[in-house]
Amino acid sequence: MKLVDKLILFTKFLKNNGGKFNMREEIKPRKDYWKKQAELWKDKSLHEEIDAIQAAIVMWSERYNDCLDRINTKTKELLREQELIVLRRDYDKFAASEPTLDIMLERASNYAPEFLIDISKDIGKHSEWQYPGLELNPSSGDFTKALLGCDVLYAYTGNVIDEDSIAKKFNPFFIEKRLMYYNDLSNLPQGQLGIAVSIGCYEFWPMDPIKDEMQKVFDLLRPGGFFIFTYNDCEHEHGLDMCGNEYRTYQTRELMGKMAQSMGFDIEKECMCNDNAHSWMIVKKPGKRSTQKIDTPWIRIIRKQQ
Questions:
Q1: Which of 175-184, 233-242, 291-300 has the lowest mean pLDDT?
Q2: In this structure, CATH architecture of domain 103-284
């Protein structure tokens, strides 16, 4: 059996094994009923038999629950063994690869229209002129327009970026006054961003580089700031298929959520569309987003020397 087939099988087991029985609580009203009725009968043998059957039902349901726990525990252990194999493969592939603009454009060409609409709405909803924003994976600028409300808007050039393509999407005033390029996240103002976005990137990264970048984003966000990122949810078969053919890396909603929470983020929303082919998460730095800005600035913005 192929590695990805094992992952799919174990994931299906955990999803379809079902929940536990709670027969002790479910039977209690009936048990009380028969007990009271038995008090009115001289011959209580049948009621005693019902009571014994109910006790047996509770006993067998609890034995079932115990077996279910052990099956799920063993399944999780086997799943984790296969996950580690895939994660090692992902690190090796990541270390040997160097994304190009052509690769990024090819990936973007696979975005479903539904995904483009839904995630752009989420980005626009959390982008406000009172707060600066950051796009971590601008590529050709497909999602940069969704951040148009941010003042200023930072574009990170440490990942693949086509500045000419981005420039064509905006007027000269926006390019000169409000869009700023940085190749080092440490040079951005700490604790000031209202939103950061990474689309079409983490699906192709192993966990440690994601964790490193996510920690930097947490430090850049102001309290109440949002981080929106896509990932490959292998808790669903579509995501596992794309991991199995080595197109994407192995991630799950649980792994990504726990990693974000370990850094201090609160999970605001978990999203998916197009038969789970696209998954994204909206997380928030604790606190309430606030600012003293009451109008857009008219002063000239001076870029920080890098």
A1: 291-300
A2: 3-Layer(aba) Sandwich (3.40)
